[in-house]
Amino acid sequence: MKNVMILCGAGQIGMAIARRMGYGMKIIIGDKKYENAKAVADIMTAAGFDVTAVTMDLSERVSIQSMITEAQKYGSIKMLINAAGVSPSQAPIEAILKVDLYGTAVLLEEVGKVIAEGGVGITISSQSGHRMAQLSAKQDELLAITPAEELLSLDMLQPANIHDTLHAYQLAKRCNEKRVMAEAVKWGKRGARINSISPGIVVTPLAIDEFNGPRGDFYKNMFANCPAGRPGTADEIANAAELLMSDKGSFITGADFLIDGGATASYFYGPLKPEIKA
Question: Which class for 270: exposed (0-12), middle (13-18), buried (19 or more C-beta within 10 A)?
């Protein structure tokens, strides 16, 4: 039996983190599209990792539970990387909320029930959660602790209260950060840790969809006018994940790390600050 890593989402960021942390472990990679999971599994297997691909729909609790059951066949679940999700240009409001918000809440809850002592998790959030208007303390609390099956019934998440897909995505990522805080308390009782990373513009297929989507010029302007002056890479996100998932990060849990080349700083206090219309 081995220690097991669960990787949700067959993307570049998740694979970069898994390659950094998954040596010597059994890695279960789940994606809604099996062929995508298989493609990443093949790449990692060819590099010497022990990887099995499965179909996993983040929007369905039963599918998440099935992936966990498969993982447990190989040993104790010691690591979770959640890099699954859809972007504002890829899905309608309802799907963004069901996958990115509800699905992430369910995944953290279900893995938190079985995570091994000394285990650790990372979920990939987004700079978008830092970019929206502040919510009230009560709204933040509701996002943090409302039972997962009741989340999508919250007033603030009703379609009439959501402006567009970007707003839905921002709410989902704000919820991710708050759920991580609440779940860290529960995971701590099992001797485990959970954190989130909020990347900025990182060059991945998902980001390229955004560059070519309706907000493409906005995103290109964002990385051109952030302090770093460029988009990031998946391996730079993995650098932070390595700290958070290793013993060097043993005092870090319930936290969110914004890694965006300073884009959010520029949004509030620099050239990316939106003009206030009279």
Answer: middle
Residue 20: burial class (beta carbons within 10 Å; 0-12, 13-18, 19+)? middle
Which of the residues are catalytic? 169, 173
Residue tagged 């966990």 (tokens): 68
* Claim: this prediction has a pTM higher than 0.85: yes
Tracing tokens 């998954």 back to the chain, one arrives at 22
User: Do the bridges between strand 26-31 and strand 4-8 make them parallel or antiparallel, or are there none, so unpaired?
Assistant: parallel
For 232-236, the CB contacts below 8 A with 24+ separation are 232/199, 232/200, 232/201, 232/202, 232/203, 232/259, 232/260, 232/261, 233/202, 233/203, 234/12, 234/13, 234/15, 234/16, 234/202, 234/203, 234/204, 235/16, 236/202
Dist CA 239 CA 117 (whole Å): 24
pLDDT digits (tens, 9 = 90+) for 78-136: 999 999 998 887 889 999 999 999 999 999 999 999 999 999 999 999 999 998 888 99
